[in-house]
Amino acid sequence: MEDRYKGWMKHDFVDEVIKLKGMLDEQEIELETLRAEREYVQKLKDELQEKLSEEHWKPKKNERGAGRKPMLTRELYADIMRQKDAGNSYRQIAKSLGVSVGLVGKACNMSGVAVEQLKHEQSLYNN
């Protein structure tokens, strides 16, 4: 009688091993799929980084340097911020520097990244 139970147990054990092997194969396929997706996402991330690089955001400038020059220079930005820190209103600053109120507002609301971009654009026009 014990031999018959051993046979059933062995058969159940083999079935369980086959089932676990199938599950392992499925997990390996899923892991390979996830790796491929991760590589694809990394590739897209690298492409996006390249598009956002310095070359992409460089102002359009032809050989003659024609085109509209930026109104807001580093010096003007510094003057605006100095007067803003002194407590002057946008209108007072605009009148004293001879620029529009909108330009003063733009300068006051610029983030640190935008200020760095302004410095970069100015260096391109000055070269």
List keywords for this structure.
mainly alpha, 2 domains, elongated, 127 residues, 77% helix, 6 helices
Question: Care to describe what's here?
Answer:
By secondary structure, the chain is mostly helical. It folds into two domains: 2-54; 71-126. The chain has helices spanning 2-51, 54-57, 74-85, 90-97, 101-109, 112-126. Helix 3 crosses helix 4 (90-97). The radius of gyration is 33 Å and the shape is elongated. The model has no long low-confidence stretch (mean pLDDT 76).
Low-confidence segments, given as residue ranges, are none
Mean pLDDT, nearest integer? Answer: 76
Strand content: under 5%
Secondary-structure-based class equals: mainly alpha
Percentage of residues assigned to helices: over 70%
Oligomer: single chain
Alpha-carbon Rg, integer:
33 Å
| Shape descriptor | elongated
What can be said about the biggest beta sheet? none
Distance between the termini: 97 Å
What's the short story on this structure?
The chain has helices at 2-51, 54-57, 74-85, 90-97, 101-109, 112-126. By secondary structure, the protein is mostly helical. The mean pLDDT is 76.
Walk me through the topology.
Blueprint: H1 2-51, H2 54-57, H3 74-85, H4 90-97, H5 101-109, H6 112-126
